[in-house]
Design brief:
Elements lengths: L1 H29 L12 H10 L3 H9 L3 H11 L2 H6 L2 E6 L4 E8 L2 E13 L5 E13 L2 E14 L11 E8 L4 E5 L3 E5 L2 E12 L9 E10 L3 E8 L3
Antiparallel strand pairs: 1-11, 2-3, 3-4, 4-5, 5-6, 7-9, 8-9, 9-10, 10-11
Length: 238
């Protein structure tokens, strides 16, 4: 009698598990699929996107003045992953002067490095330095994407980096509807009497025409004590 009850209980439990498993599989099959990325960014879609993007109206006004052929070329550049991969900066100069350097990628596309640098003498003899480096992609001389890393630090009376007052931050302005740009938390990497302010940026495609893989970029603001600076923006991460 006891054996018959045990066998019946096991059979019932197996039936419940089978029904439950089948029901879950059915529910999973009915779950909505993840929306596919749009196939291509068009001129009209870009104009509509700029109307809603923060600060997009100023870019829209400049974009609308371009001839139709250049508008089409513009959105073609936006969704070209090779342009994002080529986007770079390689720039150096002296404190407290800033500077500007332009790299021409194609006839219509340039990459501009802009650096500001200040040095403030403190009452205790130390010097506080502030460095801001920005890489900007421009198409037909219209700014599209700008990424910035800011670094602050101190040097002592001996002109050596003293480890005090060190901060790093970042910001961006992106008017490329085909790629989303996201920054990592900034980090500081000390070296011998110099300091690296590092931001890792990820450019993620939003259209099939822009590809399926994200592009990793690393931006470095380098403070060379109280005498110089360097700005690098390249592929990769740190």
């Amino acid at each position: 009698m006891r054996n018959r009850i045990t066998v019946a209980a096991i059979a019932t439990a197996a039936s419940v598990a089978l029904i439950g498993g089948t029901g879950q599989a059915f529910a999973d099959s009915q779950a909505p699929a993840k929306p596919a990325a749009p196939s291509k960014l068009t001129v009209d879609a870009y104009k509509a996107w700029l109307k809603k993007a923060p600060g997009g109206l100023s870019t829209l006004a400049k974009f609308a003045k371009l001839p139709k052929a250049k508008q089409q070329a513009f959105v073609t550049y936006l969704q070209d992953a090779n342009v994002i991969k080529a986007f770079k900066a390689d720039h150096s100069g002296d404190v407290p002067k800033g500077g500007k350097k332009t790299i021409r990628y194609k006839k219509d596309v340039t990459f501009v490095s802009t650096v500001t640098s200040t040095a403030h003498k403190n009452k205790n003899g130390t010097t506080t330095l502030n460095l801001s480096v920005t890489a900007t992609e421009r198409i037909f001389d219209i700014p599209v994407t700008s990424v910035t890393t800011q670094l602050a630090y101190q040097v002592g009376k001996n002109h050596l980096v003293n480890g005090k007052g060190q901060t790093v931050s970042n910001k961006s302005r992106n008017h490329n509807a085909a790629f989303a740009f996201k920054a990592s938390k900034g980090k500081i990497e000390p070296e011998a009497n110099m300091l690296d302010g590092v931001t890792n940026w990820t450019a993620t495609p939003k259209f099939k025409s822009a590809g399926t893989k994200s592009v990793n970029k690393v931006q470095v603001a380098i403070g060379l004590g109280d005498h110089g600076w360097s700005h690098g923006f390249v592929n990769g991460k740190r």
